[in-house]
Amino acid sequence: EESRFATRRLFLFIGADPNTGWLDGCGIAVDRNGFVLTGEASDRPALMTNVPGVFAIGDVRAGSTKRVAAAVGEGAAVVAQILRASGDHLAVLARICRTFVKPNSRQ
After folding, report:
1. CA distance 38 to 44
2. What are the residue ranges of helices labelled H in 1-107?
3. Which segment of 28-32, 56-60, 65-69 scores lowest on mean pLDDT?
4. DSSP 39
């Protein structure tokens, strides 16, 4: 069936199936649609999953707004939550740096 609509702007949203099958067996809780459940309704930090120290952000998170800007904001928020949860800010930052920043092999 074909339909025509007079529009000025259009926001097209096609599909929202989470790619979370790889989490099977990890113990991370997902809802019936496969979206990762986070701590909004519990005593955990808002973006932490049921597995302590594991966080979820963006479209894969149950209840997220499914917008890029929201995911970016959640990414910034989760850094603060990780630092608060760890209690040792400098140790967490050092682990992050060791994980993502590789030493220059020419030195």
Report:
1. 8
2. 68-86, 89-100
3. 65-69
4. G
